[in-house]
Amino acid sequence: VSAARHDATFGFSAVFDAGASQEAVFEGSGMRQLVELAMDGFSCTVFAFGQTGSGKTYTLMGPLGQSDTQPASPALLGLMQRSFTCLLEQSRSRASDLALSASYLEIYNEQVRDLLSPGPPCALPLRWSKTRGFYVENQLSVEFESLEAIVSLLLQGSQRRRTSAHALNRHSSRSHALLTIHVRSRARGAANSPVVGGACPSKQGTLCFVDLAGSERVKETGSSGELSVEANSINRSLLALGHCISLLAKPRGKRTHIPYRDSKLTRLLARSLGGSGITLMVACISPSSRCLSETLSTLHYASRARRVTTRP
User: What residue stretches are annotated with the Kinesin motor domain (predicted)?
Assistant: First the structure.
């Protein structure tokens, strides 16, 4: 980043400019390897982070306005749809029986809401257990077997998500959204194998896509009233996430208590950030000089996240 009084250099696993295709981002970001690891029983997460209007939802999902009747051009599809295709292709080629299901949540004004359950979205309680960690009670999980079925669930949930227009973005996400694919695999023929206790060897992995609402300065977006309340809620949860990442980036011996309970977002991402999971962070930035301070903030945030190491 080269600007007056702001010369800074950052290093990442991959960097894509504005001309990069969606296919190049999928192949170059390591997303294909994450899909394969989820099938091997790992807990995998990808989250898009950056200021409002920097292209997070586009990178994950592709163009806005997609629907079952108006699908997007295949070249413009994002990481999610490409991952679904890769997952289903892999499941057909592997010698194992796969059960796939999906759940889709949003965190709006510190309320967790199910985007797949019928009727108006209502707040669901977030619980803690020793075996499961933080989990959402009564969340709907829908099984799927085809690409059409999972893309339909994605579009159905996305259309129910809270969005609003402001000075920097006509379609600003007002909530954090988490789509989780649960992958349960069992080796074929395992039912007849002589396993002690008659249990079949099985693996359970997850692939979680997190579309974070963009950080925003109320002065820049011109938000007031309800929009301002939403912005404050978004910024508070992103601050809590940044605080957790900063503490996790410290050497193991110097780590203090990690405050996951500070927000619903950090509770739901606790396993992805500091557990035994594998996480890909996609930092989206704007090329505009007007956005310089937010761009530097995003890059510092991503640099800290890169120093977090877990032992999956």
Answer: 1-308
